[in-house]
Design goal:
It contains eleven helices and 17 strands. The strands form three sheets. A nine-stranded mixed β-sheet has the order 3-7-8-9-10-12-11-14-13, with helices on one face. Strand 4, helix 5 and strand 5 form a beta-alpha-beta unit. The protein is globular, with a radius of gyration of 22 Å. The protein binds fe (ii) ion (FE2). The site of fe (ii) ion (FE2) has 6 residues, from helix 7. Fe (ii) ion (FE2) binds next to helix 7.
Amino acid sequence: MARSRIATLVREKDEMARTAWEALAERPPSHASAQALEPEVLAETARALQLIEQEQRAPGVMATVQDPYACLLQTHLAKFGAASPMPGARTLEVKFDEHDALRWAASAVFTWWKRITRFQWTDPVTLASPFPNKARVAVFGDWATGLYGAPEVSRSIAGERAGYQLVLHLGDTYYSGDRDEVDEGLIQPWPRAAGALHRALNGNHEMYTGGEAYFEAVGREFGQHSTYFALQNDHWILAGLDTAYSDHALHGAQAQWIGTLLAQAGGRRLVLFSHHQPFSLLEGQGPRLVAKLAPFLKDRRIFAWYWGHEHRCAIYDAHPAWGLLGRCVGHGGFPYFRDKLPGAGGGATAFLRVDTRRGVPGAHILDGPNPFIAGHESRYGPHGYASLEFDGPRLNEVIRSATGEVLRAAQLA
Ligand SMILES: [Fe+2]
């Protein structure tokens, strides 16, 4: 039986009034082999189940939380859940009343969780690798579900006639980037554009398993042996940051490395790529990223910054103090609810205006239905990606739908 990709928690009717804690704790294991759980395991599992259940608003559609234990539990349930997937479906419904299965999962996942270690931190061998002056870059984030718009994004990038010189994922392989998820969500469906350099940043989800499967896979498949790196041509420096090894922060000497890149930049402009956001109009801010890069931001040395993590597409105005052009392109393949913005929710795909607030620049935010989330098309926002076209000192930015349709094009330089 092929394993499923999604674990959806479903409560039986008689469980509706109970909390996950009660459901697990009240009934003793009925199976002779089922072990009683340690209170710590029980509490942690009940907490994780509640988190998952709160986030899961549409039955059968992938949902997740930013919680390591909950994500490991999702990975485990998707793989080893007790209930059989519906025939032909990729969704597994793990019923709350299957206490023995949950106990078994909790016990296994708790042990797994306690043993997780992060991959060996590795600095890049070269300061910056050469990059053609005329080059096209495909950028997509939060894509590695293997589902919904993700295969379309992949087909569109791989099939682009003009080709790409760099294919770059901004991180997050769901639920927790274990070996199977990296293989099925990141590596197998990866857009193998001919002749391109392939790079994948790590996100918080890969790091829930310590990032080992991800790091091993990008080394083997892409020849990528560090999680931060730079490319440069005569006019531009493209730098990928690791903001996940230390969550939403810059681990190691990355800030100094950016300083070194800028010191030798000459007239080159710097474009950053990361999983996490430095700022946001609609979610949390990235104060630790901003603090580490403050001197370069204040000196207006960062031209543009592309990030994911937030599941939406947001095109920010130039930052009033730092000059940088911020872009969130975390709408690569994970199902996300459409933002409740004035004018949102209709049948058309459009960029909606959100004004500046609390020092965060205003933005145009993509709204529209998602044709790849069957049965829930109008509730979820569209998937897609960005194409960056470098030509000497010029940079053209194209925001595309999952199938490659141009939604917005602008010359940034
Ligand atoms: Fe993320």
